[in-house]
Amino acid sequence: MALNLDARQRAMLAEMHVRVWSPVTAPEASLSSLAPGQAMTMQAAPPVHAPQAVKSAASTPTPSTPNTTSAHAAEPAASPLVLRRPEGLDAMDWTTLQHTVSNCQACSLCHTRQHTVFGAGTPATEGQVPQVDWLIVGEAPGENEDLQGQPFVGQAGQLLDNMLRACGLSRAAQVGPEGGGIYITNVLKCRPPGNRNPKPEEVAQCEPYLQRQVALLKPKIILAMGRFAVQSLLQHSVPGVDKAPLGKLRGQVHSYQGVPVVVTYHPAYLLRNLPEKAKVWADLCLAMALLKSAHEIS
Ligand code: URA
């Protein structure tokens, strides 16, 4: 899906020395033709609660047709990857999606979680999709998030709130005439035990939920925080994203479902590397400039 920047926006970004990334090996048109999750070469979509598990083609590659569409597919699979895609996901409304996530049993994280963490942000009327400009995507719930069922409520969350405040934003703020609403979510909706890294198969199982959240929220900007958010959001549009250092992906405008994506460091990383704060500030300034420009032309 193309990133629709007009000549003025492109000139402004050029002025800021921001490169607008466009795929070289995969034409964007081919992305828009992918159904959500299709790049994992799913063949069918079994319902979550009546799973008729279907092995993804990623687990049974044929020597003559290696799967090059997914960053994860190339990894040696210890056990066959079985993708469980909720029936009717692409047509789900916000409430049904929330309900589906809270009952999800697509991977083993459902056995260890206390709560699923769907996301949080600008308040919305019951059953309505929150009206937001920003979608902020982190990695996965940690211990506090798992206990409370809310994203970013621990130390990393406090830092995120401070960063947002520095931009004049707040996760609970109502949308003003100039926009400003925020939604915060994660790649994984369940906590990996012991806060270990998400596994590729967990990311693959959870990915359709994030896809549907983006489709419903229609944010004007996505801030991808950390390696897992970046890889999940850009895996189909940035070749080799799983190997690329985050620093190389920053300072460019990427795209997911036609929404501009700005890459930045995860707040938990920042807590360990405080001097990197200046870079995150620069990333936030880029995101704000893109948003401002989007508002000016709408
Ligand atoms: N880290 C994340 O990536 N997400 C959270 O919700 C909390 C910590």
Secondary-structure blueprint of this entry?
Blueprint: H1 7-15, E1 19-20, H2 28-32, E2 54-55, E3 82-83, H3 94-102, H4 109-112, E4 120-121, E5 134-138, H5 143-148, H6 155-166, E6 182-186, H7 200-217, E7 221-225, H8 227-234, H9 246-249, E8 252-256, E9 259-264, H10 267-272, H11 277-297
Uracil is lined by residues 138-142, 145, 151-152, 154, 156-157, 186, 268.
Strand order of the largest sheet: 1-8-9-7-5-6-4
Distance between the termini: 19 Å
CATH architecture: 3-Layer(aba) Sandwich
Helix content: 25-40%
Rg, Cα atoms, Å: 18 Å
CATH first level: which class? Alpha Beta
Count all strands and give the number: 9
Number of domains: 1
The class by helix and strand makeup works out as alpha/beta
At the fourth level of CATH, the homologous superfamily is Uracil-DNA glycosylase-like domain
Number of helices: 11
Shape: globular
Reported for the largest beta sheet, the result is: 7 strands, mixed
Short note summarizing the structure:
This protein has 298 residues and is an alpha/beta fold.
Describe the model:
Helices cover 34% and strands 11% of the residues. It is of the alpha/beta class and 298 residues long. The longest helix has 21 residues, at 277-297. The structure holds uracil (URA).
Characteristic terms for this protein:
single chain, 298 residues, alpha/beta, Uracil-DNA Glycosylase, subunit E, 7-stranded mixed beta sheet, globular, binds uracil
